[in-house]
Specification:
eight-stranded parallel beta sheet; single chain; globular
Length: 197
């Protein structure tokens, strides 16, 4: 099976072994994930994170995607291995952009881990309080941001309605799409260590 896993930076991600996932399927990650784990693809739409990633030469260790509005086209023309998102309005969030790239790569199934969305009026992130991230409980308008993320996810599910997308979660959001399913961490582990062993 041609499977992929898109890795967000919500705390539920810590309940899984990313290296086991990486051995079994293609991995797509977001922003500061590289500090702990380098996926096959790394996506960042945020200019400050992009500068950090390029400053640490991570774009030479993985297939790196960003957007043209980050004004690094000259670096790409000079031979830096930088890829740009295509066919969509730019300045979207890194997580949904990573999902879109995975779906465009024609996987049979795409898992989403670490996409925790809003919990108790906060948007939890492993890297909160670290460079280029918001401070604890200072995420601007979390409810509005959460609604936008879910709206973008819903649009992507409609666009790629022939590909199964499975969100691995401790906090279901119950979006109603024929190609979308939510499973628990333990259910994902059973699939990972069973089917892909």
């Amino acid at each position: 099976m041609n499977a992929a896993c898109v890795i967000g930076n919500g705390p539920s991600r810590k309940l899984l072994d990313l290296y086991d996932i990486h051995r079994c399927m293609t991995t797509y990650g977001c922003n500061a994930l590289y500090r702990d784990f380098i996926p096959h693809y790394l996506i960042s739409m945020d200019i400050f994170m992009v500068r950090e990633i390029l400053g640490n030469n991570i774009h030479y260790k993985t297939k790196f995607y960003t957007q043209h509005t980050n004004h690094i086209d000259d670096m790409a023309r000079d031979g830096h291995p930088i890829n740009f998102v295509w066919g969509q309005r730019e300045t979207l969030d890194s997580g949904n952009t990573a999902l879109r790239i995975a779906l465009k790569n024609n996987h049979d199934i795409v898992y989403m881990i670490g996409f925790d969305y809003m919990v108790d009026n906060d948007i939890p992130n492993i890297y909160t309080d670290s460079p280029n991230y918001y401070k604890s409980n200072q995420y601007p308008a979390p409810e509005s941001q959460n609604t936008r993320w879910r709206g973008r996810l819903s649009s992507i599910l409609k666009e790629f309605n022939k590909i199964k997308v499975v969100r691995v979660t401790t906090n279901p959001i119950n979006l109603k799409h024929d190609n979308f399913l939510e499973i628990t961490i333990n259910e994902f582990k059973e699939e990972l260590y069973g089917i892909y062993a």
